[in-house]
Amino acid sequence: MLEKEFERLYYKFRENFCRNLFECVKDGSINPSDLYCLEVIFLLGKPKVKEFAEKVNISLPNASYRINNLIEKGYLRKVASKQDRREYHLEVTDKFLCSYGPNASFNVRLMSRIREKFSKEEIGVLERMIRKIVDEIME
After folding, report:
1. Domain boundaries, the chain
2. Which residues contact 54 (CB under 8 A, 6 or more apart)?
3. Do 90 and 46 form a contact (C-beta atoms < 8 A)?
4. Which CATH code, of 3.30.310.50, 3.30.70.260, 1.10.1060.10, 1.10.10.10, is assigned to 2-99?
């Protein structure tokens, strides 16, 4: 039962993500592969090029090609590291964040509905369980 319900929840998040993904590619300026790379970079929180390449299991030249393409399209920028000016961190631009917005609004609507349907105590239990899952179980 737990497995089935958790799978249903996961699929709802994925369904929303995929719907927004295809909304973003309608104008033809970006493709699903580009959006996947941007999503990974965003979730990694300003990674170095090497960290991005390792995370998606691609070569550094392939990563550089993809990164330069996304920079050219205006979705990504390289920011010199404050510790070592030879290194760069990848940062998504506002252009990406605008296309990412529908995912955030989905979460806002979901949180609003949770607050309507559950008591403060239930929300507290849910919050603690999610924190424990993320911090302890998924590591």
Report:
1. 2-99
2. none
3. yes
4. 1.10.10.10
Which uninterrupted H or E stretch holds 115? helix 94-117
Instruction: Indicate whether 118 pLDDT > 70.
Output: yes
Q: Using an 8 Å Cβ cutoff, are 67 and 17 in contact?
A: no
Query: Alpha-carbon distance 104 to 97, whole Å?
Result: 10
Q: Is 92 within 8 Å of 46 (Cβ atoms)?
A: no
Q: What angle do CA 117, 130, 11 make, to 5 degrees?
A: 75
pLDDT tens per residue across span 65-95: 999 999 999 999 999 888 887 888 999 998 8
